[in-house]
Amino acid sequence: MAVDAVDEFLPAPKMAALGLQHVLVMYAGAVAVPLIIGRALKLSPEDVAFLISADLFTCGLVTLVQCIGFPGVGIRLPVMMGVTFASVGPMMTMAATADIGLLGIYGAVIASGIFAILIAPFISRMLPLFPPVVTGTIILVIGISLMRVGINWAGGGLPMLTKVVNGEVVTVANPNYGQLPGLGLSLFVLLVILALIRWGKGFVANVAVLLGIVAGAVLASFTGVMHFEKVAAAPWFGLVLPLHFGLPHFSLVPIATMCIVMVVVMIESLGMFLALGEMTGRTVDQKALARGLRADGVGTLLGGLFNTFPYTSFSQNVGLVGVTGVKSRWVTATGGLIMLALGLLPKMAALVEAVPQVVLGGAGLVMFGMVAATGARILTAVDFKTNRFNLFIVAISVGFGMIPLVAPNFFKALPHELHPLLESGILLAAISAVALNVFFNGMKGASLDEVVAAAKQADAH
């Protein structure tokens, strides 16, 4: 009996290599949030290091929940889970408020995780509002939005860095951004990946991104860009215990803010789950969506308990599934086990952390572009010839999605409480596409049967 590609077990060496590839492409994003929040809170270097280990440990734990699945929880698709960047802005504000602090943040995270678990079935019922013209547009915007991450990786990080100076959070220019050696390393990684995709066979082609990153890391070591001092200084083993910093504090305003963030996160996750359904050929129905979204809530609840932050499905790993063509959820489950190990073995975590962002940049351009290409492929199943309204849905929604990307201060004058919603281009594109589709095509154009039929048609292409 043939095994579905999503449920396929690969040989252990292949599983380990492919899982490590998933870890490498998400690692920089996974550790960025605890670094930013830890420094904003003026925590000691040891406490910041613990935040990173706690984050990696919980990434692995929640990834296993999402991939393996338990009754009512977990979408059972090749998903890697990590801390969402959508929570950074609100948590920075909480960090700067004396009566909230880290324990107040953890209280808000725990409460928002419970909230997400409760509302998951209601969010999943929104599936009929997402026909191919909507899902294709959202996934296209996800890919385009992620390109900013890949480009900044290639440039050497963010062009502006956040630092704490005299007790205040300020931004300063990154002196290493856009330097020629870093750009050269990114280009080298990109060329290696393209060569392996073009001329590699079988397993080698599947791990092209991993081999490109390894080749880039070796070159970075020889050129003095990759350093190993932190690896030598890191201990071999360290436990991650819950409530390490003390009992969380619960306050209404931080909780309400974080619950709004979770709604944003779950709508973005919905789009990613649909993208994975397209890539793997597995129909993602309402029950599957509810399980996946509930896992986001369980992950966020565990995040608050294990000294970290809200969790979501990582978009960059969706792109990697498209690049490799490997659809097995056991590959990402293996990645989850590796993340668990990194959380418990600080020296291993330090080794992966030592890989420069410019090395990851060359790989990011490939992976994130694949997400955008998936959105474009879904849109090929949309009737643009006889239904001209669909053109307007795509055009206007992409425009809304680009606002935070090209004009970060566009909504500056609006109330600060709305910024978590308005600063997500993916959410703006989703709201616009859903509203315009209902306005132009009505609910009859967005039935679940048509979603599934169009998904199969797109997959046939």
Q: What are the main properties of this structure?
A:
461 residues; mainly alpha; two-stranded antiparallel sheet; 4 strands; globular; disordered C terminus; UacT-like; Xan_ur_permease
What features would you describe in this structure?
With 461 residues, this protein is mainly α. The protein has one domain. 67% of the residues lie in helices and 4% in strands. The chain has 19 helices and four strands. Strands 1-4 form a two-stranded antiparallel ribbon. It has a two-stranded antiparallel ribbon with strand order 2-3. This is Xanthine/uracil permease family protein. It is found in: Cell membrane. Its main location: membrane. It comes from Azorhizobium caulinodans (strain ATCC 43989 / DSM 5975 / JCM 20966 / LMG 6465 / NBRC 14845 / NCIMB 13405 / ORS 571). GO terms for molecular function: xanthine transmembrane transporter activity.
Per DSSP, the total helix count is 19
Unreliable stretches = 445-461
| Radius of gyration based on Cα positions | 21 Å
Q: In what order do the strands lie side by side in the largest sheet? A: 1-4
Question: What class do helices, strands and sheet pairing give?
Answer: mainly alpha
Total number of strands: 4
Cα separation of the termini: 26 Å
Count of the domains: 1
Mean pLDDT: 79
Note the run of SSEs as H and E: HHEHHHEEHHHHHHEHHHHHHHH
Helix proportion? 55-70%
Biggest beta sheet attributes: 2 strands, antiparallel
Shape type: globular
Strand content: under 5%
Family: Belongs to the nucleobase:cation symporter-2 (NCS2) (TC 2.A.40) family.
Main location: membrane
Pfam families: Xan_ur_permease
GO molecular function: xanthine transmembrane transporter activity
